[in-house]
Amino acid sequence: MSKTFKALPIQLSDKLIGEIKEGNSLFQKPVKENGMPAFVKPINPVTGKGYSAMNALILGMQRHDDPRWLSADAARYAGTWVKEGEKGTLIEFPKTSDIQAIRTADGQRIKNEEGVTQTKTVEFDKPKTGQAFLFNGSQLKDVQPLEEFLAKQNEGQTLSPIERANKLIEDSKAVIIHGGQEAYYDKQRDAVFMPEPEHFENETKYLQAAIHQLAHWSGHEDRLNRPMEGKFGSLDYAREEMRAAIAGILIGGELKIGHNFGQQAAYMSTFAKILKDEPFEIAKATRDAQKIANLLLGVSQKREQKQAPEVGFKKGDEIAYMDTTYKVLETYKTKSIKVEDADGARKVLKPDYGLYKSLLEAKTNPREPDMVLAEEQGQSEEQGQQQKIGR
């Protein structure tokens, strides 16, 4: 890797600073010129899973209308191809294991009688940082039309985005007091204060503002216990605003209601200063925003859309693995498969064979572990009191 390569959080911070200065960041422009939301929730179309917060922000900042993202290998296994000249978008993920070739003492690969390299799964003591370049659905050819994909995604969804947002607010059980001209969270009273709904341009704007304040509400010591002692206008106050703003982007993308930070003018210069002076703060902010989104969306609840079907083998599958390609010649009721490698060697693999499991892993998730939305929720240090947050 080049010595001049910047860590991904630094790259993200630099890009955000540039967009803030130009006035076109996700915080400042929640809607694109074509009328579509500026942020579309990224999704792996093969598994139906989303990506973790920092990766979702990186992918969403590409401003594609298509939510689908795959690596070049995953796209090829799905029967699609990256268009010539397209550039991928770099993401990072925690890698807990790796499939490696078994080698002799002098480093030579050990192969079986058929000439197939023998492998082993190595579990890491601590997660390592893995990287992958992803491509958007609009960068792929022979891909399912976007309208068909979205229609299938929405099958079984009985609630509209507005109804889902209202349900999220109701399910939070937060105390919401209407009246006045300001929208804010009062930590001392543990209550959200909102102007009357008719004060807003439309119901969507009201719901977006309410969700933003619920993001602050999540930081109470009885919930996620975030430090929120900063005074209005301070850097600590702005850090909390950044977390709530990113959470609003994630939640708005999940509900398909969009987001509207609202107070962007008051915080943009401070956001840019934090990102410049502390570029790795974006990694911390996105982790906290992920926890906020998890809490408000309810990570214990099943996704309302249908889940992707279980992945298995089918006759004709061609799977690149290690230094060869395996073609599935037959599948059996026992789930065993007959495969042929690139050298013409054939064998029957049972589900408990290591090579069977490795091929299934390579087909299901080729060099691209999925980023699930759920993260463990942690406790932070004891907080001070702050009456109004999110003004």
TrEMBL record:
N-terminal domain ranges (all copies): 11-122
Gene Ontology terms for molecular function: single-stranded DNA binding
Pfam families according to UniProt: ArdcN, MPTase-PolyVal
InterPro entries: ArdC_N, MPTase-PolyVal
Record region (Disordered): 366-391
Domain Polyvalent protein metallopeptidase: residue ranges: 163-287
Low complexity bias (residue ranges): 375-391
Coiled coil: none
Name of the molecule in the record: Antirestriction protein ArdC
Organism of this sequence: Mucilaginibacter gracilis
